[in-house]
Design brief:
By secondary structure, this protein is α+β, with helices and mostly antiparallel strands. Helices cover about 60% and strands about 5% of the residues. Helix 1 links the parallel strand 1 and strand 2.
Length: about 220
């Protein structure tokens, strides 16, 4: 029995859940919140973060570690390329999303616009949010637009094949959209079309709908 520990709207929890869905693996969600990490959460994830995953009584923490584990234990369908350079590229885009995109979308936009008002009764600093969206996100999107070949749009940023890279990038954009922002299709047409296609996959769509219901979006 697989259990995912973490809150659904977390992009990292969603990343793991999409991977599980793509692999047609059944699991249970334990809706653990990361705020003021409890002793129970710290037993699962010593850093008090989410997600953690329990499989057959054994626990792992960190979304990248969990997805890599799932790939080894449940290799089909594959979410990582086998060719060495393509494999490296997929890992790179995963890291780009997990470190680069989240650094702006997470604390500076989603936290401000959604989490603080909804869960902590704190006002949103709209000016700071708009500044992050206008000034900090564009260079990150510029890079992805440049890296995405036209013939790979809607298929996979690495070699035109769906992979962990597409999951990692697209899960971050879900949270951007929950904060009522999006990708300007006029400025980044390939990226906007690609992410829209990813979000239409059943593995993403059901979770996005679940989030919207929970967050009142």
């Amino acid at each position: 029995m697989i259990t995912v520990h973490g809150a659904g709207p977390s992009p990292f929890v969603r990343k793991v859940r999409v991977a599980l869905a793509e692999k047609n693996l059944a699991y249970t969600l334990d809706p653990v919140m990361p705020f003021g990490a409890s002793p129970e959460l710290k037993k699962l994830h010593p850093l008090g973060k989410i997600p953690a995953l329990t499989d057959d009584g054994r626990t792992l923490a960190d979304s990248s570690v969990i997805c890599a584990y799932l790939e080894r234990k449940y290799p089909e369908p594959a979410l990582y390329p086998t060719e060495p350079y393509a494999y490296g590229r997929a890992l790179w885009f995963e890291e780009y999303a997990d470190s680069g995109l989240v650094s702006v979308i997470g604390p500076k936009i989603f936290m401000q616009k959604v989490v603080n008002p909804l869960f902590f009764n704190k006002p949103c600093d709209d000016a700071a949010v708009q500044k992050a969206f206008d000034e900090e996100l564009p260079p990150l999107f510029d890079y992805l637009e440049e890296q995405l070949a036209a013939e790979h749009v809607g298929k996979g940023i690495v070699g035109g094949r769906f992979s962990i890279a597409d999951i990692a990038i697209s899960t971050m954009i879900v949270n951007l959209q929950h904060a009522t922002f999006g990708i300007d299709a006029g400025r980044w047409p390939k990226l906007a079309a690609h992410v829209a296609a990813m979000h239409e996959r059943p593995s993403f769509k059901s979770l996005i709908d679940e989030d919207r219901s929970m967050l009142g979006r």
